[in-house]
Amino acid sequence: MCRSQIAEALGKIFLGDANACRLTEPAAEINRDAVRLVKELYGVDMTESQRPKLVSELPAVDVVVTMGCGVECPYLPCKARVDWGLDDPTGKGDEEFLRVIKAIEEKVLRLKNTLEAGVAG
Question: SS3 sequence, the chain?
Answer without folding.
Answer: CCHHHHHHHHHHHHHCHHHCCCCCCCCCCCCHHHHHHHHHHHCCCHHHHCCCCCHHHCCCCCEEEECCCCCCCCCCCCCEEEECCCCCCCCCCHHHHHHHHHHHHHHHHHHHHHHHHHHHC
